Amino acid sequence: MKPLRSLSGLLDFEAAARWGSFKLAAQELHKTPAAVSLQVKQLEEALCFALFVRHPRHIALTAKGQELAIAVGRMLGELRAKVAALQRGDEEAVLRISTTHSFAIKWLVPRMPRFTKLHPELELRLDSNDAQVDIEDDAVDVAIRYGPVRDGDPALLFRERLVPVYSPDLLAPGEPEPGLADLGRFPLLCERTPEAWLQLLQENRALKGKYDFSRVFTHWGVLAQAAVAGQGIALVPYGIAFQDILAGSLRVLPCRSAPFGNGYRLLVNPHKEGMTKVQHFRDWIRAEMEAMRRTLP
Fold it and tell me: What pTM value is reported for the model?
């Protein structure tokens, strides 16, 4: 296996792979099609495998060519983003945050003005995506991840707790606040399955009874919003319902919470660890999470 000793053909290859044409790649690179074809041919010789199948009127990537095109495209995208950031001088002025849709909508976005008030020099760019991003990607500075957590983890921000919540609009005028004994009178809103509800009912010795689990959602944020709309009593993570609880849009039904192993962790791009913007954000979100923790019922 020979090492790749030159990167000169990668730009031509990436452009040809993206366009599916030496001619169109040549127009982008301000070269002749023959020059692009020659660069790719020399790259293939250095790699010892074919990148394209050449047909009379078009080219097609081979299986290995497809894999390399993805890798090179990603690499060049990161490189171009880095160069652009350095040219603009905004590497310390822009904070790029990745997190889930529900956490972004229900917790982070309502608090972002508080962070920007403390640090008006920073521009925030939020990527809300339930798919996990590569924390070493240059387009990410910090990521707030939701999932299983363990005590003692230095990245742990907040261990979640599932709480049953409902809208005041769910009750008739003058109707008293519901308790566990009243759950059978309302639709119980679930995230994917009723399993968490059953655990909570078992924890409170309230499994006996007929319960309506007919409304199921696949998104914590949508589930909380359904509770705000008065569709029933929802069992949601406290962090997702927290802003609505503060605003009075949701109330917490008093009971013991069920065991729950998920929570939030703050991951930092290892290449950005020492940056001031990252330190500011870490200090701020830890303080915000601690303030929320103190309000847990």
Answer: 0.68
